[in-house]
Amino acid sequence: MNILKPTDANITAAAEIIKNGGIAAFPTETVYGLGADALNPIAVAKIFEAKKRPFFDPLIVHIAELSDMDKITKRPDSKSLKLMERFWPGPLTIILEKNDNLPHIVTSSLPNVAVRMPSNNIALEFIKKSGTTIAAPSANRFGCLSPTSAEHVYSQLGSSVDIIIDGGQCTFGIESTIIKILEDKIYLLRHGAITKEEIEEFIKEPVVLDITSDKTEAPGQLPYHYSPEKQIILIDKITTIEERCGYLFYKKPDFYAPENSSKILSEKGNLREAAANLFSHLHYLDRLDIDIIYAEKIEEKGLGIAIMDRLNKASRKNNK
Fold first, then answer.
1. Does the pLDDT at position 259 exceed 80?
2. Contacts of 297 (CB under 8 A, 6+ apart)
3. Within 10 Å of residue 90's Cβ, how many Cβ atoms?
4. Chain mean position to CA 174
5. Cα 284 from chain centre
6. Using CB atoms within 10 A of its CB, is residue 157 exposed (0-12), middle (13-18) or buried (19+)?
């Protein structure tokens, strides 16, 4: 397995691996994805095997151009098309009705498929050179911390990946927002990099929350997910420092916190910066010789909702 810089030759090499039925990790603006040819069920099965992901959890399919949807979906409704025009390329995933070309393994035998067009130029070039649509969940072990760097991918998946394209740190740092449209209403299935408010402001109608469904319709809907190996405990505000503990601050604290066991999401409380740093800081703390990670809660407003969604699910791992 090779970690390669995103040169034209290396992206072409990664695309050839996809064409030959292999799997490749690549950067997006959200997190790193683990990709396979979405139309090749044997290749897609390798994703589940590498991640140790249960087959009931469907995958997102990534496209580079709107015309790619003809390969995997039936014609989208007018509201979905309107949202695509506004938010694609970008971190919005839309649930659409699949066509007969798409293997059932991609959608966990559901009639719909989650689709998005990433805005990361490396990802777009990789998809184009592959000549297909790319099924790609996050490039990590199932249920573990999402990867926002090539190093994170390698540390979790190692040689089970044929190639990793190193595109540096991901811009947004948390996964895409997932929505579906049913009977002309928009339902939010997963909080993500685009906020509910941003969608509502554009579409001029309310978005209905549907994140507690009994059945898994999209990635990230399980009650626990995105978890470090260490136990993570959420508290309103960190006020003291103890030995053998790691600390994730939202803002810069008003007291001394040792740098080797503490991370600050955003010194000035910028939610976009906090989201971008979330998983990378948790990866750092998880590697320390500590027993517990204490993380400060963030006001569940705007992008803070998506951040707290990840932290809440991460903290449930040891309480399931």
1. yes
2. 234, 235, 236, 250, 308, 311
3. 20
4. 6
5. 18
6. buried
Alpha carbons 320 and 195: distance in angstroms, whole number? 28
246 half-sphere exposure, CB direction, 13 A CA radius: 23
State the pLDDT confidence band at 305, using cuts at 50, 70 and 90: very high
Cβ atoms within 10 Å of 78's Cβ, excluding its own: 10
Residue found by looking up tokens 């050839």 in the block = 16
CB atoms within 10 A of CB 231: 16
Higher pLDDT, 276 or 317: 276
What are the CA-CA distances from residue 264 to residues 20, 52, 124, 275 (Å)?
43, 31, 32, 11
Which is nearest to 34 in space by CA: 174, 217, 220, 161? Answer: 161
Among 116, 117, 97, CA closest to 107: 97
Q: How many residues does the chain have?
A: 320
The tens digit of pLDDT for each residue in 42-68 reads 999 999 999 999 999 999 999 999 999
Q: What is the pLDDT of residues 137-150, one digit of tens each?
A: 999 999 899 999 99
CB count within 10 Å of CB 201 equals 9
In angstroms, the CA 174 to CA 164 distance is 19
Cβ–Cβ contacts within 10 Å for residue 253, how many?
A: 17
d(CA 110, CA 216): 10
For the record, the structure tokens of 48 come out as 């589940």
Token pair recorded at residue 248: 């994730």
Q: Is the dihedral of CA 141, 151, 278, 177 positive or negative?
A: negative
